[in-house]
Specification:
The structure is a single chain. This protein has two domains: 5-136 and 294-300, Gcn5-related N-acetyltransferase (GNAT) (Aminopeptidase); 139-292, Gcn5-related N-acetyltransferase (GNAT) (Aminopeptidase, 3-Layer(aba) Sandwich), CATH 3.40.630.30. The chain has helices at 12-22, 30-43, 90-104, 118-126, 160-163, 165-177, 190-198, 248-262, 277-286; strands at residues 5-6, 47-53, 56-65, 74-81, 109-115, 130-141, 155-159, 209-213, 216-226, 231-239, 267-273, 289-300. The chain has nine helices and twelve strands. Strands 1-2-3-4-5-12-6-11-10-9-8-7 form a twelve-stranded mixed beta sheet, with helices on both faces. It is globular. The two termini are 27 Å apart. The chain is of the alpha+beta class and 304 residues long.
């Protein structure tokens, strides 16, 4: 019988090792995991669940309400099982615990993301999930970057550390509304964004970049950094509607990635929805190559 226990902050280090094995394209740190967990528990009625075996952490799950949307009852969950511990009911037990928690706090619609492999997708479909979007994950070797495009008149760049959080939020909040998603990101409060995004230990504010047009913030790109491992992940690039179609996202990524290379980083990762063709084209120009894919899936929670 599988015993599910509450997850704790001490699970961050073994979970990070497990994530690197299952999701090699994801970039995170122990401090980043703990930061997200603490915020979710405080603001989004989040809960953690874990299963141990004789080899240590065998599986882990996180479940939160989505507080960045106007859709009542929207929720998310993540479940991961150590590859050599699969087939023993651990994933089923963790998912059941996550769903029960979300129902108890008003969750109605659950969105999850899963590695795009037949066994995992069958696992979700058997448990009532409907597959939706596909996200392509890619890796970039920074030694092979193309030349940075010439900056048009009036266009400048600055680090997020230089421009500050309010300028970055003005771009990010507008861009997220148009991001492909099963749940719209249309209710983003500044204070929550500040705590979740700006104060995330993984966010490298010296490398993350803002493109300004005549002094106005127009485009931004976030870089979550693992300096010890020499890796970063581009976790979001967005442009305000009035400035789209000018090549500013290409400039933002090119300038930021060159700065990361100069700072000693060797590898970058990113993930993009398959319907976001303009960003996929930019990534192809930069030299990204596919390394994996995930699917999002949705389930209505009975009794939520």
């Amino acid at each position: 019988m599988t015993t599910v226990r509450p997850g704790t902050l001490d699970d961050a280090a073994p979970l990070l090792d497990l994530r690197r094995e299952v999701f090699p394209w994801q970039v995170n740190t122990v401090a980043g995991l703990r930061h997200g967990w603490e915020l979710a528990a405080r603001n989004a009625k989040g809960a953690l669940f874990a299963v141990d075996d004789e080899h240590g952490l065998a599986g882990f799950a996180r479940a939160d309400l989505n507080i960045w949307t106007s859709e009542a009852g929207a929720a998310s969950a993540t479940t991961i099982v150590r590859p050599d511990a699969r087939g023993r009911g651990i994933g089923s037990a963790l998912l059941a615990a996550a769903e029960a928690h979300l129902r108890s706090v008003g969750g109605r619609k659950l969105v999850v993301h899963a590695v795009d492999e037949p066994h995992t997708l069958r696992f979700l479909e058997k448990r009532g999930f409907t597959l939706t979007f596909e996200v392509r994950y890619q890796r970039l070797l920074l030694a092979d970057l193309p030349p940075t495009p010439e900056l048009p008149a009036g266009v400048t760049t600055a680090s997020m550390a230089e421009v500050g959080p309010e300028a970055v939020f003005s771009v990010d909040a507008e861009a997220m509304v148009d991001e492909p998603s099963d749940t719209p990101f249309d209710k983003i409060e500044y204070d929550e964004w500040l705590a979740d995004v700006w104060q995330d230990p993984n966010l490298d504010k010296d490398l993350s970049l803002v493109v300004l047009v005549d002094g106005e913030p127009a485009t931004m790109t976030f870089l979550s950094a693992d300096r010890e491992g020499g890796r970063f992940m581009s976790t979001g690039t967005g442009t305000r509607r009035a400035y789209r179609g000018r090549g500013l996202a290409k400039i933002a990524k090119s300038v930021a990635f060159r700065a990361a290379r100069d700072a000693g980083f060797t590898t970058g990762y990113t993930g993009n929805d398959e319907v976001n063709k303009p960003m996929l084209a930019i990534n192809e120009w930069l030299g990204y190559r596919a390394v994996g894919a995930e699917r999002s899936a949705v389930k209505q929670l009975a009794g939520g």
